[in-house]
Amino acid sequence: MYNLRKNLLMYALSAATALATQLAYAAGGVAATPSKTTELDSPPWQQGANNDATERGLSFTEPDADNLADFHGDPIHLALALYVGGNYFFAMAPLVYAFEAHYPQYRGHVYWETLPPGLLIKQIESGGVVTVGNMTWTVAPDVYLAGLKTVQREIDAGLLQAPAVPYVKNTLTIMVPKNNPAHVERLADLGEPGVRLAMPNPAFEGIARQIKIALENAGGDALVKAVYDTKVNDGSTTLTHIHYRQTPLWIMQGKADAGITWQSEAVFQEQAGHPVAHVDIPVADNATAIYGGAIAKGASHVQAARRWLAFIRSPEALSIFERYGFTPFQPDTTASTVRFLRQQRGHPEQAPDVSNSVHTKI
Question: CB under 8 Å to 313, separation ≥6 — which residues?
Answer without folding.
Answer: 165, 167, 341, 354, 356, 358
